[in-house]
Amino acid sequence: MKKLILIVLASFLSLALAMQSGYAARDEKTKIILLIAEQNIESPQFAWWLSEVDLSTTELKVAQQLIAQGYEVLEPSNLTKILRQDKAFRLLNLADTKSVKLGNLAKADYVVLGKAVASAGGNIVQSRMRSCFANVTAKLIRVKDGKVIAYLDAAGNSAHMDVITGGREALSSAGGDLAEKIINALTKDGGKQ
After folding, report:
1. Between vectors from CA 66 to CA 85 and to CA 72, what angle results, nearest 5°?
2. pTM score, two decimals?
3. What is the pLDDT of residues 133-187, one digit of tens each?
4. DSSP classification of residue 91
5. How does the average pLDDT of the chain come out, rounded?
6. Residue 164, CB half-sphere, CA atoms under 13 Å: how many?
7. What is the per-residue burial (b if ≥16 Cβ within 10 Å, else e) of 126-144?
8. DSSP assignment of 118-133, as one string?
9. Using N-to-C axis directions, what is the helix angle for 76-85 and 96-105, rounded to 10°?
């Protein structure tokens, strides 16, 4: 009888531990690193990983939407130690292999590697406002095997009297468009939320 009670008790403990680890795995969010170099109108190209400052306008918009969908975006502050230890990551145009290595060191699931550029168009008729446009190209890379799972592009536009502000608005709009495409690609790839 004691053996039967021990077997039943052991079975319940095993089941409880299995359920607890299952819940813990579901609670883990997909971790994503955003590496989108950005150039606004009349500004130099910007990349947070060069100077460990805040995310760009495009990355900020993408991060907001990813976080709203339950993903975890690794901030520059989370990666400071890694960037200081390995100067090879301090390149404006990171290769896929370097971005995957950074993702592995940071224990990320995916890396978004891309470029965003804003440009000014002509004046709007009978106005002092200028047309501004932004284009973004990016790759969504799965870190565990280094496979590019999606090639993405997005665009945004704005009209503003100040071209720098108009460019920032266009970049933000393009970032929103890109975020939707990233979320769709993550969903298709089985990226957990």
Report:
1. 45
2. 0.80
3. 999 999 999 999 999 999 999 999 998 888 888 889 999 999 999 999 999 999 9
4. -
5. 84
6. 3
7. eeebbbbbbbbebbbbbbe
8. EEEEEEPTTSS-EEEE
9. 110
